[in-house]
Design a protein that fits this description.
The protein is mainly beta and 139 residues long. A hairpin with a 7-residue loop joins strand 4 and strand 5. Keywords: Membrane, Signal, Transmembrane, Transmembrane helix.
């Protein structure tokens, strides 16, 4: 869950269910609200701390029948391990802010941990076969 920075509304009117985002296009930020179904929200996402490049994006969202909302953003220019600040605003006195980290789990390929360092299996087998051939031909 996102880390609440400052909930400016009374109680827990807003919640952020997105735990982190990745630096790609079409990233959906999801949350919850205790406001009435159909309430229009303004979702703003901006750079936080030393996040580069500095940015500000906004999208609108509507509170659904189960209290959930979502908004989509483009984070393709943001670096891994930065943080973004998410502001959820329904009105001047109903808003909240959260911080969420940028993680890129897909940036590290799952094959990288399975690959052999150095020459690889095919070259190693060929070298062993060549060595065995040389030993046999010297006898």
């Amino acid at each position: 869950m996102g880390i609440p920075v400052a909930a400016q509304s009374g109680g827990d009117t807003f919640g952020l269910t997105t735990e982190n985002v990745t630096s790609t296009e079409n990233q959906t930020i999801r949350g919850t609200s205790t406001l009435e179904t159909g309430t229009e929200l303004q979702i703003r996402v901006q750079s936080s701390g030393e996040t580069e490049p500095q940015f500000l994006q906004s999208d609108s969202a509507t509170v659904g029948p189960t209290g959930k909302w979502n908004a989509t953003f483009d984070f393709s220019a943001i670096e891994t391990h930065d943080t973004v600040e998410v502001s959820v605003v329904a009105s001047e006195n109903q808003s909240a802010e959260f911080e969420t980290p940028v993680r890129n789990d897909q940036a590290s390929s799952s094959n990288s941990s399975e690959s052999a360092p150095g020459f690889g299996v095919v070259v190693a087998v060929a070298a062993l076969a060549g060595g065995a051939f040389l030993l046999r031909s010297r006898r």
